[in-house]
Amino acid sequence: MRPLRACLGAAAAVTLAAAGTTALVASNASGATTALSNRWYAAAPYLMPLDNNPPNAATIMDATGLKAFQLAFVLAPNGGGCTPTWGGTAAVSSDTAVQSVINAIRAKGGDVSVSIGGYGGTKLGQTCADAASTAAAYQQVITKYGLHAIDFDLEEPEYENTAAIKNEIGAAKILQQNNPGLYVSVTTPGTADGTGWFGKQMLLEAKSQGFTPNNFSIMPFDGGFSGAASQTSALTNFNSILQSTFGWDQATAYAHEGFSGMNGRSDTGEYFTQTDFQTVLDYATSHNMDRFTFWSLNRDRQCSPVDNNGTTSGTCSSVAQGDWDFAKYSVKFAGVTPPTTTPTPTPTPTPTSCKTAWSSTAVYVKDDEVSYNSHNWKAKWWTQNEVPGASEWGPWQDEGAC
């Protein structure tokens, strides 16, 4: 994920019970709270409570019926150390701002999960000595906020670090054992094949440690995706990876699989509209997948102008929409019907113009832009005669179709 980037009604409760969801009762630092069903934690969209112009959670709840939020992100301190912070700067131990957000959500009958990691920043798995100390740091977060759910968002640069991933997976297993009923999701980047090499290594680490979370979720965006069809194809391929890694049958793999999308314009210029979300939601529910979420509620509102001048924003979606349109798909996944509103038509985005064509003989330096194979590309560093897109970890960053 990019950093840019009350009780259920009787009918809904019956639906969720039939789906095999569970509930538990726990206490938090600010008083007793009853957990939601696991289906709500599985549907919780990401919300940055301290950055990217945070929307009012109560407003979203009233407008959509949403009850669960995935708060992001807990990191190691920017200066190093093995204590949890919000975004590397605000110590969890002394936090009051996020606690206030959580209290407001719970006062309206909702709840939160907390996500650790995300894209960029220093993760606790990188700075803590071992799995036990990593788990102890995360336990501080669970205890302070009385959490019933937690998300391990394992991506760059951490998931390229074998020792760090061993710490994170080991910590997840310890927390799962020490907090009975804790809902645990593991989120990692997606590719057209399901997930890349580092994602597969993470799954193998989980297998070697005997760790099974509620789900492994992929993020099928920022990887040359184009609409819902490419995302559902990646989910199908990821299901095969789960089967082959853990020896599960197809149904068991889907029951441990999740989707984490990006609403509107992605970092690389892909567009995912309300129609795309509905298609993926239909796929997730028809295959009995465990999770459907997205990045992020901070972006679940329309830009002005709509396309935000062709750039990706952390505070709006870059597609035509009503406020909180995308949150309603999470509500549907949880088994609840959102309030009725008039749908907003989504126009076809204007194609981005192509940069000067890439040349095998030219020398390029950082931030130079070229076009190749109907996509624009930006150089990450000095390069010559390295074909854009030839290697996932090569010198070129895909900026999307042109």
Walk me through the structure.
The chain is of the alpha/beta class. The protein is 32% helix and 20% strand. It has helices at 10-18, 38-43, 57-64, 97-107, 124-127, 131-145, 162-178, 197-209, 227-246, 250-255, 274-286, 327-333; strands at 25-28, 31-34, 46-47, 68-75, 85-86, 90-91, 111-117, 149-153, 183-189, 215-219, 257-262, 264-265, 271-272, 291-295, 363-364, 369-372, 375-379, 383-384, 396-401. The strands form five sheets. Strands 3, 4, 5, 6, 7, 8, 9, 10, 11 and 14 form a ten-stranded mixed beta sheet that branches. A three-stranded antiparallel beta sheet has the order 16-17-19, with no helix packed on it. Strands 1-2 form a two-stranded antiparallel sheet. Helix 9 packs parallel to helix 11. The protein is globular, with a radius of gyration of 20 Å.
Give the topology, please.
Elements: H1 10-18, E1 25-28, E2 31-34, H2 38-43, E3 46-47, H3 57-64, E4 68-75, E5 85-86, E6 90-91, H4 97-107, E7 111-117, H5 124-127, H6 131-145, E8 149-153, H7 162-178, E9 183-189, H8 197-209, E10 215-219, H9 227-246, H10 250-255, E11 257-262, E12 264-265, E13 271-272, H11 274-286, E14 291-295, H12 327-333, E15 363-364, E16 369-372, E17 375-379, E18 383-384, E19 396-401
Parallel strand pairs: 3-4, 4-7, 7-8, 8-9, 9-10, 10-11, 11-14
Antiparallel strand pairs: 1-2, 4-5, 5-6, 12-13, 15-18, 16-17, 17-19
Helix pairs in contact: 6-7, 7-8, 8-9, 9-11, 11-12
